[in-house]
Every structure is written in structure tokens, then in C-alpha cells.
């Protein structure tokens, strides 16, 4: 099944380019159209769009297969990117905000590719192949922001607002990703392929099922908690770095190192999940996330090197947690539950991330960067408890 994995990696590269090229200038475009007070609202809308789209995309995957769901998601994201350009031309905040919701569907679609990788994988290497698909995002995350200048020039040459130019690359990238997705072989998880008459249960029913099954419950809580900790701390780190007198170059370096930690080593965690088990890798992820928050607490006085270490650890802990949790969810035996649960998990992940981004500002304003990291460490407790219960249940069953 090398060809499907290669195709999924290519869709993730293209999708990553589209997402990253837009995110790089999104806040500036919102500031230009709607004013400074709304500049952070654009990213929140994109995350919200990803959360809203996760369940419908999973339902579509259950009914029609992964390739249809992925192609549809990327096409809607291309429509969103085009609408962003329209909003910039019209200088309409309403059009721009609706467009950014649609644009966020790209992130939900990118996330779904990791589950597709597990479904197309054969044998005991599911986590490894899934993590390779996930790793491909690294390329897009690096290339996308570097298209900002070229996108601005392209926009100007077409007599469009320069900040809308990078979204033109997004349109092309998402449309190409949808075409590549259609080259995937038919899914083996649809009702027609499995011989079942139903395409799956509702997202809420899937979450209720997970709460009654310790391993699935741990996977869902780990995903939500890891993403909340990562987004909450990461989103406020630029404010911390700038607040201690460092320039935008240092802000960019810190975030780049963080993104490297998030994606570059995901194949290592996938390989480990196949070798020693996803539960153990999940434990590693929680330990690394705790180390990140402790290091962040020590860096609260403005120590730049410690801040860099904290953000790298934050990315690594997130990567280990997401890969291991995804592997656990991909291993759910019930075909009726598996795909709806994956969609519900991604939706919850993005809702928690959006909430963490919103809450992070007030928490840091009142308690500082150290207090923010203490709060993030406390957020890990539910996942730790769920992990202990999952391990205990497995031992009792064995």
C-alpha cells in the first residue's frame, strides 16, 4: 500500500502549504479589514471552522469513503480561500469572517489524512505509516509562510490587496490536494465495502461509547488535553518573548522550533508506537508535556534559551500524544464506531484548542507566563488519571 500512503503525504504537503500560507498573513489581513481589536479573531474562526467540519467530514468518510471526504474538504477550503480574497477586495469584515470559517476546513481535512493512512496501511506498521502522513505537514508548514512575499507581489500584479495574495496560493494548493485525493483507491470502511447497512453512529454516541471504554476514553482525553496545553502555551509565547524585549526574528525562531518539534519527529513516535505500544508512547507524551510546562515556568523571567527548550518540548510532547492517541483510535474494533469517533475526537480537539487560545490571554494577564504554565500542567491531570485506568484495565484483562 505504498501508493496510497505517498498520495496521502502529497495531499498533506499541499494542504499544509495552503493552510500555512494563509495563517502567516491572516491576522494582518483581519487587522487591515476589521481593525486591530479583531486581529486575533481570524485564527479563532479558522480553528472553529476546523472543529465544526470534523464531524461532517467523518460522516462523509463513513458513507462515501476517505477519498470523497478528503476531496470535498479541500474543495470547500479552496472556496474559503477564494472568499477570503473577495472579502479583502470588498473590505468586508463579514465576508472575511465567513470565509475564514470555510478556510479552517483545510485543517480538519489535513487531520483526517492520518486516519486514512492507518486504514490504507497493512500489517503491524499502522502507527508508523500514519505518522509519515502526519510528518508531511512539516514541509507545508515550512514552505507556506515563505510564500507570503511572493503572494503579496502576485496580488499586487493582479490589482488585489497584497495581503490577499498568499490565499491565491491556497486556492491552487487545495484544488491540487483535492485532485490528488481522488487518486486514492476506494475506501474499505464504507457500508458497501464492509457489508454493513449503516455508515456509523452519531458523534455524541461515539463519545459516549468512548467514555465507557477505558482505552478509547484515554485516547480522547489525551488528544484534547495535549492540544489544549499546546495551543494555550504556544499562543501566548510570542507575547512573552516580545514582552522581554526580543524582536520578531526571535519570535519567529521560537515558533519555528516549536513547529519542528510538533511534526518533524512524528515518524519516530509512530515507529515507537508500533514497537512498544501506543499506551507507552502516550505516557512518554504526557511526561514530555509536563517537562515543557516546568521548563516554561522556569523561563517565566524572560530566559530566551529556556523558552526555546520549553517550546520544543511542547511540540514533541504534543506529537507523541497525538500520534499515540490516533493509533489507539485507529485500533477501535467496532467499524460502526471507529470513523464517527475519530471525527468527534478531532472536533473536540479543535474546540478545546480554540478555548485554550481564548483563555490563555486573560490567564497570562492575571498570573503571568509562569501561571499559564502551571495551569497547563494541571490540565494534564485528567489525561494522567485516564491513562492509569486504561493501563489497569488492560492488566486486569490480560
Automatic annotation (TrEMBL):
Its main location: membrane. It is a multi-pass membrane protein. Residues 4-394 form the Major facilitator superfamily (MFS) profile domain. Keywords: Membrane, Transmembrane, Transmembrane helix. It comes from the Bacteria. GO terms for cellular component: plasma membrane. InterPro entries: MFS_dom (IPR020846), MFS_trans_sf (IPR036259). The chain crosses the membrane at residues 7-29, 41-62, 74-107, 167-184, 218-239, 251-272, 278-299, 306-328, 348-369, 376-397. PROSITE patterns: MFS. SUPFAM superfamilies: MFS general substrate transporter (SSF103473). It is found in: Cell membrane. GO terms for molecular function: transmembrane transporter activity. This is Predicted arabinose efflux permease, MFS family.
Amino acid at each position: 500500500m505504498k501508493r496510497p500512503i505517498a498520495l496521502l503525504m502529497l495531499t498533506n504537503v499541499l494542504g499544509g502549504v495552503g493552510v500555512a500560507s494563509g495563517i502567516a498573513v491572516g491576522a494582518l489581513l483581519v487587522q487591515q479589514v476589521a481593525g486591530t481589536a479583531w486581529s486575533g479573531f481570524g485564527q479563532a474562526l479558522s480553528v472553529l471552522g476546523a472543529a465544526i467540519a470534523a464531524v461532517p467530514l467523518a460522516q462523509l468518510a463513513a458513507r462515501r469513503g476517505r477519498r470523497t471526504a478528503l476531496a470535498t474538504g479541500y474543495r470547500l477550503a479552496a472556496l474559503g480561500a477564494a472568499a477570503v480574497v473577495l472579502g479583502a477586495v470588498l473590505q468586508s469584515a463579514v465576508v472575511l469572517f465567513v470565509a475564514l470559517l470555510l478556510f479552517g476546513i483545510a485543517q480538519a481535512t489535513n487531520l483526517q489524512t492520518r486516519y486514512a493512512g492507518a486504514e490504507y496501511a497493512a500489517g503491524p506498521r499502522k502507527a508508523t505509516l500514519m505518522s509519515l502522513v502526519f510528518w508531511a505537514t512539516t514541509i507545508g508548514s515550512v514552505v507556506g509562510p515563505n510564500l507570503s512575499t511572493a503572494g503579496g507581489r502576485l496580488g499586487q500584479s493582479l490589482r488585489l490587496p497584497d495581503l490577499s495574495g498568499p490565499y491565491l496560493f491556497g486556492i491552487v494548493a487545495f484544488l491540487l490536494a483535492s485532485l490528488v485525493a481522488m487518486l486514492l483507491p476506494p475506501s474499505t470502511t464504507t457500508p458497501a465495502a464492509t457489508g454493513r447497512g449503516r455508515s456509523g453512529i452519531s458523534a455524541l454516541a461515539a463519545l459516549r461509547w468512548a467514555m465507557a471504554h477505558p482505552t478509547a476514553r484515554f485516547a480522547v482525553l489525551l488528544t484534547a488535553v495535549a492540544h489544549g496545553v499546546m495551543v494555550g502555551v504556544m499562543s501566548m509565547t510570542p507575547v512573552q518573548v516580545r514582552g522581554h524585549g526580543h524582536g520578531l526574528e526571535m519570535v519567529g525562531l521560537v515558533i519555528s522550533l516549536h513547529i519542528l518539534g510538533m511534526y518533524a519527529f512524528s515518524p519516530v513516535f509512530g515507529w515507537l508506537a508500533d514497537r512498544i505500544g501506543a499506551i507507552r508512547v502516550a505516557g512518554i507524551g504526557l511526561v514530555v508535556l509536563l517537562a515543557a510546562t516546568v521548563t516554561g515556568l522556569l523561563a517565566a523571567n524572560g530566559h530566551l534559551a529556556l523558552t526555546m527548550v520549553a517550546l520544543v518540548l511542547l511540540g514533541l510532547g504534543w506529537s507523541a500524544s497525538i500520534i499515540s492517541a490516533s493509533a489507539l483510535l485507529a485500533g477501535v474494533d467496532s467499524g460502526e464506531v471507529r470513523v464517527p469517533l475519530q471525527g468527534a475526537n478531532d472536533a473536540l480537539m479543535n474546540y478545546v484548542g480554540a478555548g485554550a487560545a481564548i483563555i490563555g490571554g486573560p490567564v497570562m494577564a492575571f498570573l503571568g507566563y509562569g501561571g499559564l504554565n502551571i495551569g497547563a500542567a494541571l490540565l494534564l491531570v485528567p489525561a494522567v488519571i485516564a491513562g492509569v485506568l486504561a493501563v489497569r484495565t488492560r492488566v486486569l484483562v490480560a
